[in-house]
Specification:
Chain A has 14 helices and ten strands. With 357 residues, chain A is an alpha/beta fold. In chain A, strands 4, 5, 6, 7, 8, 9 and 10 form a seven-stranded mixed β-sheet that branches. In chain A, helix 5 packs across helix 6 and helix 5 crosses helix 14. The longest helix of chain B has 33 residues. The chains are: A alpha/beta (357), B mainly alpha (274).
Amino acid sequence: MKEITRSVIAIILVCIALFFVNDYLNKSSGNASNDAVTIYNWGEYIDPELLTQFEEESGYRVVYETFDSNEAMMTKIEQGGTSYDIAVPSEYAIETMKENDLLLPIDHSKIPNLTNVDPYFLDLSFDPKNKYSVPYFWGTVGIVYNPALLDGQTFESWEALWDLSLKGQILLVDGSREVIGMGLNSLGYSLNSTDENELQEALDKLNKLTPNVKAIIGDEVTQLMVNEEAAVALTWSGQAADMMWENEELDFSIPQEGSNLWFDNMVIPKTAANVEGAHAFINFMLGAEVAAQNADYVGYSTPNVAAIDLMDEEVTSDERFYPSEELRDNLEVYNNLGLEMLGVYNELFLEFKMGMN
Amino acid sequence: MQNKNSKSIYSVPYFVWILLFVIAPIALIAYYSFLDLSGNFTLDNYKNFFTSVYLKLTLSSFWYAFLITLFSLIVAYPTAYFLTKTKHKQLWLLLIIIPSWINLLLKTYAFIGIFGLSGPINAFLQVFGISEQQILFTDFSFIFVSVYIFIPFMILPIFNALDKLNPSLIDASKDLGASNWTTFSKVIFPLTINGVKAGVQAVFIPSLSLFMITRLIAGNKVITLGTAIEQQFLVTQNWGMGSTIAVFLIIFMVIIMIITGQREKGATSYGKNK
C-alpha cells in the first residue's frame, strides 16, 4: 500500500513538472502568443518553402496544420480549442461559416496585393465584396484518363463513361456532391438540383454505370491512376495535374455538358488569435512571385493574374486547367443546399454504392 | 467490516470508469438518436432506419461479418490445434500475434499494392499463363484482408481452450473405441466451444462496424454499418441519424453477446488445474 501511494505521488509530481516544462516551451517558442500564425489548410496545398520565406520576411512563426474535408475543418473550428488564424474553405463552406458566424471580416487596406487577383474571382455570390474571404486557388471536376489503356475515347461528353468497353475501368471519388452531380450533369440538369424527380433520374442513370465502376475511393485515386491500375477516373483538376505530372500518358477533360467550378478562399476564422499576422499572411500569399511559385508547386489554377504573367505560358494557356471564361460559363458552382438536402444527396449516394454489389 | 470498506474503495475507479466511458457515451448516443437536424425531439430517425436503405445495409453487414467469422474459424481452429501440438507452442503463437501489433491502416495499404494489377499476386499468376486478374476491390479481397486482420483474435481463445484440454480425456475416448471423428465431435469440440464462442465474438462484432477496409480494399462496393455511421457524422452532419444507426449496432452487439455468452460448463473447468 505504501509503495502504491509513493508511486502515485511520484507520477503526480512528474505530471506537474511536465506541465510546467510544456508551458515554458510554449512561451519561449511563442505558441499561442502573438508572434505565431496558425494556418489550417488542405493537405499538400502549399509549397512548404513559402512558409519558411514568410517566417523570414515577416518575423512571425508559422504553425501549420492540415485537414481533408470542409466538414472536418468546420467542426474543428466550431469547437474552438486551437486558435487557427487562417483557414482555406471551399465556397459552399464559406457560406455555411458565414451563416454560423465563424468568420472575421477582412480589412482590405491591409491587403494591397488584392489588386493582383483577376476580378472574375472577386465579389462572387458566396461572399459579396469579399468581405470575409480572399481567393487562393480554383479548379474544376473532370475526367482523367489513360489513352494507352483505351481505344480512342476522349471524354468530351459524360456519356462516354457509360461505354460498354469500359467495364470495371472507372474510379470515382468518394463524394456525394461530385458523383450525384455527375449524374445530374450527364442528363443536362443543374448539379445543384433539389428536384426529387431529377435526382431520382440521376440515380437511375448512375445505377446503369455500376458495371463500369471499379471502385469509389478517396485520395488513393492518384496512385492507382499513376500506376495504371485503372483507365478512367472522376477527379478534381489539381489532382489530375498531380497525376499527369507523375505519369505523362494521362490526359484530362472537362465534359461539355458542364461540371463543377470551385474556389478555395483564405479566411480568418473566429478562433484567430493573431488577426494582424493573418492579414500579413494573406497579403504575402497574394504576392505575384509567391503565388506563381505556389501554383507551380501545387498544380491547381491560381486566380492571381500577376502570377500568371510570371508562369510558364504553356501551363497557363492550357485550356484543361485554365479554361477560358467562355468555357467557365458552362460550369456551375456548388450552392450551399443546406443540411437537409445534403442528407438526401448522401442517401442517394449510399443507395448507388449499395447497388454496386 | 474493514474488509467490506476497503472493497468499496477499490471499486471506485471501476465505477467511475464505467460511468464516464461506458454509460455516459451510450446515454449520449441514445439521446442524440432522438434529435433531428435542428435539434428537436423526433422519432423520424428510427422510422427512417426501417424504411430506407439502412435495413438492406444491415443485412449486408451481417452477411459479410458472417463470412469473415466463418473463414476465420475454418482457418483458426486447425491452426490452434496444430499449435498446441508443437514443441515451442508459445513462440509459434507469438509469431501469429505479432502482426496484430502493427497499425491496421499500414497493413491495409500494403494489400493495395499486393493485390494490384502489377502486384506480386498477379505477377505470380502470369508465370502460369493466367492473364491479369482484378483482385483488388472485390468481395474476395475484402474478406481475405478482414480475415487476415481478425484471425489472431480467433486463434488466441481457441488455442487457450485447446491448451487447457486434459489429454487423458482424449486417451479415454480412444480407449473406449471412439474414432478420430467421434473423439473430435463428441469430446474435443464440445470442450473447447467456449473458446470458439469467445473467438466468434471477437471477430463478428468488430466486423459489423469495419469501415476503412470497405473503402481501401473493397472500393466502397461493400458497405457496412460502420461506413454509414462515419458518413452521417462527418459528411452529412446528421448526428441524429448516425446515433440511431449506432444504437442499432449496439443492440445487435448485445444480442450476439447473449447468444455467444459463456456458460458455466466449459472445457476449462475440466482442465488439468482442477
